[in-house]
Specification:
seven-stranded mixed sheet, CHP04046_FMN-dependent, 431 residues, 2 domains, flavin adenine dinucleotide binding, FAD/NAD(P)-binding domain
Length: 431
């Protein structure tokens, strides 16, 4: 917890708002939409520019992995002519630009929040830094809508790799041509890692992929997108407390699949049969060699088991409801590793660059309130914390699968806006 004390004499008078929304992505803008509907004065603070993540932290060939019909921000659903397609990066940005205009939120861009703390007279003090200027404002209630992906994860062993190896994180990757000549090591096989490996592979680059424990799912099964089936099965309406893993589902790695070129499976085994080199999880770098865990086979098998298990649940749903659908069959491996390779000589490999795709850590160190668990994650129920007047929005599985996505953030924002507008009503329900 921070030991800072509030600025005694801020360089400009303290402003006060009923609500301060921190973060100007789709979550913060969705919150603003509902607050405006209720006539609640507020401000949205964004340290960079609104929806900047979609413009600045996606590779050139990026496309949504969920179908366009799931893009349902408040008052602004997808209205294009391809609801079952997958918007590409430039289309996503254009759609979000329209949402920004639609909401017309009271945003202050380029304002970084450095501290949120209780205010002696009630409510919250929000300290900010804008370039060389620093100040503060106060708010009766605060919504943290800054997401949960803040600090890129890069292992300390990266410091020991030769300076000649170009290292970037997944959010910095743009295209294969931007990387130096030579093979590319992609570390991690979650959504970003698998899709970046595919992008490099399709461009003709030699790819070495360190495969982690990420699961995978089919793009299409029995005549429809798997997302359509799961929607009919009400999976996307399941609240976190009803999920078999409960809050543990928030730690799950996303299934890898792609919306590229109209959507398809990502089959790492197929890539291997075409020349991509697959290894187990990267463990260390020592004596000039990359060291991998002997778990490639197990990780591939586990991903396929998840793939088949999801499809089997669809089979049961079809049978139980008497739905006329094309037949389906389990996935069968098209390639199997003959042995577990646990070392790769870096010089001999020809690797000239590494793309780290092992995720992000949340960083809420600037929130000076006792609401976090032992891993620095906020404790909350549907975004409502134990600190009266403090809320979170846009986190993965905040309430449902779609909470951190275009499909579910509107429902969460509407719920919190109602809570903010009439907290006594909710207190009565709890009682």
């Amino acid at each position: 917890m921070s030991t800072q004390t509030p600025t005694a004499n801020p360089p400009f008078p303290e402003e006060h708002f009923s609500v301060a929304v921190i973060g100007g992505g789709q979550a913060g803008l969705s919150m603003s939409y509902y607050l405006k509907q209720r006539g609640i004065d507020h401000v949205v603070l964004e340290k960079r520019s609104v929806t900047h993540t979609w413009r600045e932290q996606r590779w050139d060939a990026f496309s949504l992995v969920t179908p366009n019909w799931q893009c349902a921000l408040p008052g602004y659903p997808y209205r294009g002519d391809d609801p079952h397609g997958f918007m590409k990066k430039e289309e996503i940005v254009a759609w979000l630009d329209g949402f920004v205009r639609h909401v017309d939120a009271p945003v202050r861009e380029g304002v970084s929040v450095t501290r949120v703390a209780p205010r002696p007279k009630g409510g919250f003090l929000v300290q900010t830094s804008t370039g060389q200027l620093a100040g503060s404002l106060s708010a009766d209630q605060v919504v943290i809508a800054s997401g949960g992906y803040h600090t890129p994860i890069v292992p300390r062993m990266a410091e020991r790799l030769p300076a000649s190896i170009v290292q970037i994180q997944s959010s910095e990757y743009r295209n294969a041509a931007a990387l130096p000549k030579g093979a590319v090591l992609v570390v991690g096989s979650g959504q970003s890692g698998a899709q970046i490996a595919e992008d490099l592979h399709l461009s003709g680059r030699d790819v070495v992929l360190a495969v982690g424990e990420a699961p995978r799912c089919a793009r299409f099964y029995r005549g429809r997108d798997v997302v359509d089936w799961l929607a009919d099965m009400k999976y996307y309406d399941m609240p976190v407390e009803e999920h078999p893993l409960r809050e543990g589902v928030r730690d799950n790695t996303n299934h890898y699949v792609t919306g590229r070129d109209g959507g398809r499976d990502i089959d790492l085994r197929k890539f291997a049969s075409e020349g991509m080199q697959l290894y187990g999880a990267l463990e260390d770098f020592a004596d000039g060699a990359l060291r991998f865990k002997p778990n490639l086979g197990a990780n591939l098998d586990s991903a396929d088991d998840t793939y088949n298990r999801i499809n089997a649940s669809i089979d049961r749903f079809i049978a139980q409801n008497g739905i006329d659908a094309p037949s389906g069959e389990p996935y069968r491996a098209v390639w199997t590793p003959q042995q577990e390779r646990t070392a790769l000589d870096l010089d001999a490999s020809g690797i000239g660059s590494i793309v780290w795709c092992i995720g992000f850590r949340p960083d809420f160190s600037w929130i000076d309130l006792p609401i976090f668990n032992g891993r620095g994650y906020p404790g909350h129920t549907r975004g409502v914390t134990a600190q009266e007047g403090l809320y979170f929005l846009g986190l993965p599985w905040l309430h449902t699968w779609g909470s951190g996505r275009f499909s579910g953030v509107a429902r969460d924002a509407a719920y919190l806006a109602e809570r903010i507008a009439a907290p006594a009503r909710f207190d009565a329900r709890a009682a």
